[in-house]
Sequence to fold (1406 residues):
Amino acid sequence: MSDEGIIPRAYQKEIFEQACKGNVVAAMETGAGKTFIAVLLIRWIATQAESTNKKVIFLVPKVPLVWQQTSVISNHTPLRVKGFCGALGVDMWDHNRWKNEFEAHDVLVMTAQVFQDVIKHAHWRLSMVSLLIFDEAHHCNKNSPYNQIMRDYYYHMPKDQRPKIFGMTASPIWNPKNPHKSLADLQANIDARVLAVRENTAELSIHAPAPDEQVYLYAPAPSEYPGYPAPSLQSHLGTVGLSTVKALRARDLELRCETALTMLGPYGADYFLFHQLERRVMDLRLTDHQTALESLNHMHVDGLPLSEVDTNGYIAIQRVIDAHRHRFELPLSNDWISPKVQTLVSILTSAKSDSFHGIIFVEQRHIAVALAWLLSRVPELQEWLHPVALVGHGATASSNHGPAAAGGITLKLQNEAVQGFRTGKYNLLVATSVAEEGLDFQACHLTVRFDGLQSMVGYVQSRGRARQHKSSFALLIEDGCAEELARYYQLRNKEPELKKMYQRGRVKEIEHERDPSPEPAGPPPYVVPSTGASLTAHSAISLLAYLCALIPQDKYMPILQPEYTASYTTPIGNTQPLYEARLRLPSALPLPPGRHEYVSPSCLSKKAAKRTAALEAVQVLHQLGVFDDHLLPARNQRGDGAEDADGRSMVNTSSIPKVLEVDVYDAWGNLHDPESGVWLHLVHIDGVTTMGLVTGSGLDPMEVDLFEPEGFVNVRVSEPVQLEWASYESRKVDVSLMEQYTVEGIQWGINSSKMPNGLAYHLIPVRDNLPDYEEMRKVVWQRGRDWSSISADGKGVLVMDLHRPYTILTTHHDMSLVPPEAVEKAAAILASAVDPPPMDTVWLELRLLVRACHYSSTVDRLSHIPRSGSHLKPLPQRTVFAPRGRCRWTPLSLDTFRAFRLLPALARHVQDTFRARIARKDLSLPAIPDEYTIEALTLPSTSVGYSYQRLETLGDSVLKLATSVHIFHKFPHRHEGQLAILRTNSINNLYLLARAQEAGLQHFLTAEPILTKKWRPRALEETTYLEGRPCVRNTLGRRTMADCMEALLGASFVVGGMDMALETGTSLGLCFGGAVPWSARYAQPSPSSATSTPVLVQALESKLGYKFNNGNLLIEAITHPSFQGSNPSYQRLEFLGDAVIDLEVLHHLFKKYPSAQPSQLTWARSRGVCNTTLAFISVTQLSLHKYALYAPFTVEKIIESTVDAFSTMTYEQVISHAWKLDPPKILADLFEALMGAVLVDSGYDLEVTGGVVRRVMAEALKLLHPDMPKHPISELMIWVAKNGCTRVSFKKSASNPELSQRNDSVTVLVHGTPVLPPIRAATIPLAKCVAAERSLETLMCPGAEHSLGNLCSCVPKKKVQPDEDDMGDEEYDDETEDGFAKRAKAELAAAGAKVAVAVADGGNAP
Fold:
């Protein structure tokens, strides 16, 4: 539809007005503007009150039409329009995603199958559709998706809830032999009257002119072509045994080649055969290529001459192909093509014009492709004709070998052909039926039917493409083929008669009943009342297939699918043949006994019997919880409205910024608020009451060991006592005095920075457990340079000289006792002063005091964290001399100075403890000790020497196991693939962020940095309020909220094991199944129900050191999914065991290495639980390969070779170089399943299970440590980041591009230069690892040509650590320099290395 059609023509208006009154199928010629009528109707329906909140659905039969019609509607309406098709992955979308899509758009264009799935699973209701448009409406028959939508859903709705129907077609009648029935069936199926233009036919004929139809007779194909160079490719190939190579499917090639020879002649047939054989030989050699690659190991990663691989004789055939390659560059001779093509060339030659556009319709894809090429070689056509093939996708649509593939072309090539024809790049399409209908092409001058006509639809649709003025429709028919000629004339003569049938129609109620499909209707749909999801027997088979496709599979497993067998049966007294079907579901589906097989009742056809059995199976599986209430297996859910494994929706996190400002609860209250009290807390240092902490709120008692340069001191804060005053005015005076005293103490003991007005808390002297106002006044009023009240020697008095605090050792009145250099230095300082005083003759001998700004007293406060040693910056402890007149003194005592020096740490601990305690109270957490709660709620940005990160690393594993156990029990009949999706939905960072947001966890997190050089108490003006509670505004990354959720779990697990972790997780809203301990929640096996251990696995119990109560669990643990028996497969137990091993290994490392960084723990853990390590344990410790039950012989072979390889290896080799090995996953799966079986059998006794894990993995655990060599890629990235290079990347390539475009090699580029030649290996990950390892060696070598020093010209830059707000959902592409640099920076930060971080030395403390 062009922009010229903005104003409707009279005939379009005629149909539009009828469509407004009722349901209509517009039967109009191709190019008459049916889509514009649909646009008018969309505009109109959007103005109707009854359409409010409803959507317009535009259905199309083919994918290209989705984008075409989406574009048209978007360009001609202001509505929100979007297209949907299977290529977008819509079959993986969950209910919430579809709900969001429908709410965000007014018009949704989609293929019929997509919409059928949407309403089948109740993602949207048909009653919420105002207008349902069917493009190419003649498809609404039999079992097409169009007809299924109408039959299974539309006609089951009350009439007043049905949407308006509008259909479009150029050929409403399928069967011209019985046109009345054909038309009646379409009208009944689509619930609309077929309507043609009646009053404005003259105008229609102007805008959709009929072409001149001509029949061209051509001579039959000759048996020989003597002018064609001999031998032909076909005959030459016969001499090398083409038919003996079964993998080439020679018979299929021969049949297709014979067709091409008849239709096109020898040149076209050879072209087809040449490209087909070249592609098939290449595919088969690629298989050999891949097999050879997989045989490579790290000892000989590259060096195999793959181009010479020829184990099956393919190269001999390739040589014949190559010998004929030159033939297709030769000039085309007329006697090399068939008479049929010669006739076609004559037709095209006569149609030559500067503006020529034409379409040739053929039936077979390979003919279309070869014919397009052939026409491009015809000399008389080459200058002006530009042909291109347009065929469907076919079975080989994913091939990389271009349009010569017999099966079809890729979607990309198809779109290129369509767009090229529209833009004029090509002026001739050689197309199959894919171009007959729907696609919007410019009017053509010529349309040719290269093959005969088979139906009225084909005739009308293909002819309709020729709609230019004086255009032609040419039909090629073999001379003497009277049958084809008669069929054409029958269709031609019948069409006007058929058109009159629906031209007479008027919109009125359709009274005749719908004509049922040839097959019986079958059982009624299965409807889920809670959602309205509805499934018919027609859809049940595909749904079961999808369920089975989710079962995790390795490359050695056969594809697991439902198996159907149908048998003939004739019940007594019934002469009509009946069928029943038996459905067998894979044993890998964990179903109760008897639920894997279903038998249908007797049906009239095999199809009906299979569908009925499938529908019964779906009903049972839904009742068992295998399908959810939308009749779908579990799916990934993200975003607004997503649900966890318990079906609870979570808050929308999309609006949460990566960095957010939050109000965090504050301990101090407001000292200046007349409505609140003032509270005194005595501070005891090493048991001596030293000072008082004054706050605006009462604090709970607390105790902590704080660091001092002289060693740790014990500090205890006592119960609060509320202070009283006679009046608020006197309170203000005293509180002001306290603040002045506190400021004085801070400037002496901490730093000399300017303090804000209105401090949040005060540290004051006390006497008799009350404020010592006299001492405060003395300090505030008597400080200065008046020395009259100081004793002669002044010993012990605190003085300030040149902004540094000292204590007086003695006073010298005789300058001869003062070192001359000190006098000279003092004189120089005085000389530089403005109006200097005379040199003082009294000198002080002083000892420097260490302020809090020279060390961090905030670290090492938590007793459970290993103390890191001295934090004192080295300061010379020398005696200094200073003239007394240059110094000022203070009445503060040395003990008071020490107390103030502890204030930053004390204030931080008070704040941290306050938040920890109210977090436990407000979040209903169990009794996690203060110090663990503090650690779990402290962000790394605080720089206090600890953070949540270690506990978060442990908590991640706790979360995984606790969620796994709950899901395992809640969904006993869902397979591992479904369980894994449910678990992901319930543990990912966005889910944790949502739960943290719901709980308000952000209000308890400590993010304030401690920067002692400019430390100051928090000012009252910084106080904010949240629901009446005092807070302070902090900045934190949203990722930290998710991390702290896991850290709380880790803290609970460390203190109280899994029982306490379950309490914590339940309080935080996680999917743990409640706080009841597993031992009480899940029934223990009674002695009477115990089953004996089968003989096969009795020896395995001895190796484990564990006796099973339920021997069947052992059998389940060794049963591979490929083994078809009565035993369930090990996959569900493997799901559990994976989580158990993960937690046990990490917990072992957590306890053994209390000072290890989180990244070190994670890396060491990954080495212990990786596929290679577990496979090695499986083979060498337990010999599980000898017990395993599996089916494919290929598994046996690969396991044997793995066992042989492992027999010569040690644990050290396996753990250190695990990335170089790739044992079959089944070996590690067996071990994980076995540990899962122990957990279940022990009644979920984690201590017992952990003991088994640690015992079996003892040798591996000994070798795991924090400083293990890193993965080669990480090593490369960390080293590069440390050296400041930002222009590094990986590059993938194909080692043999002529044979295969598949990437199998990797090289490292530095500033665009390869460090080494490409490294080839069995897999890209392995090639990348080897390339990283070898390139790093070269880059680190100063004398190497490609050392980093020779390749890199980066200017060193200061680096900044990655933000803490990264949710982990962003992946960096290391094949780009920017992506590599970002990932390298992240790797470096994770490794705990320091990258020149520029941080302003400032900030606020609590």
Remarks:
- The CA atoms of residues 616 and 1258 lie 50 Å apart.
